[in-house]
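Complex 294.
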Amino acid sequence: MVRRIAITGATGFLGVTLARHFAADERWRVRLLARRSPPPIDSVHPIEAQPYNLEQPVDASMLGGCDVIVHCAHDLTARARGVENNVNYSAAQALIQANEDGPRARLIFVSTLSAHEDSQSEYGRVKYATEQLIDCERHTVLRPGLIIGDGGLFRRMLTQLQSAPCVPLFYFGRRNLQTIWIGDLVKAIELVIAKRADGLIPLCHPEPVGLGDFYASLLVFLNRRVPLIPLPGEPFYWSLRVAEAIGLRLPFSSDNVLGVKHLRCVNPRSALDRLGLDVSDLQTSLQRLAAART
Ligand SMILES: NC(=O)c1ccc[n+]([C@@H]2O[C@H](COP(=O)([O-])OP(=O)(O)OC[C@H]3O[C@@H](n4cnc5c(N)ncnc54)[C@H](OP(=O)(O)O)[C@@H]3O)[C@@H](O)[C@H]2O)c1
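Predicted structure with NAP bound:
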């Protein structure tokens, strides 16, 4: 039986990767929900596409016939007074309602490890608030770590490092992060669907990496030698707040620095065991990325 999967944010790093994966599988029909034309995708069945904008209402008919919806779209530029007014939150509410009025498909909400009850960044707070909208008895909330691959935030980090004269390590680099290889994340989503795994699922390699080691690995990957400079976070945070207040656009936002400040590590082992998934560590992920680029 052919099943249908709808993917929001189908022009983004994860959305396109997921679309390519499922489009190559004859058991799936893929429906792309995006605000602009997605890139060409080879597909066994014709690809379906629907205009989708987080700022516009969602009609249940846009989701008609879907068995699974993966909600990847997120507008990082959205700012609002109160998370409930953030467009990412209201768009998730609208999508959930349209799903209830329509196909009642399994909803997979792509959240983040930055989402937790003590999140301070707007990004983490909005994701956490959105998670609370999801009925975790029927649906799934995924919390991936930083996604390693040729796109998204990670590629933006590599691009910045390619020309940076030095690498500032906020909070003196005394923070750890956790990562997941993009291919492992796609596999995890496939397993979530196959095993009907509901609830909250953290997805990352179990071993956290210190910020200094993380950036040192990226510099080796890029074959660059520039100094890593440990810095306090607070003065930088407040300088960014001032810069933002007078309308300056910089490669970092104060929200990014808050995100670093409140990085929190998790133990994903039971979630990975439940899915039967092994995930690559950072070094293996970088090797895979290098191989994919050649
Ligand atoms: N990348 C990571 O390391 C990471 C880690 C943890 C969680 N996540 C989460 O994973 C999801 C996918 O991330 P990603 O790396 O694939 O992000 P991405 O490459 O930045 O893609 C974001 C997607 O959201 C779409 N979008 C933004 N504003 C929109 C709007 N107003 N209406 C409709 N679509 C809109 C973008 O469309 P346009 O192409 O038109 O801009 C794009 O398709 C996000 O929810 C993110 O928060 C990512």
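Residues 9, 11-15, 34-36, 52-55, 72-75, 110, 112, 144, 146-147, 151-154 surround NAP (CB under 6 Å).
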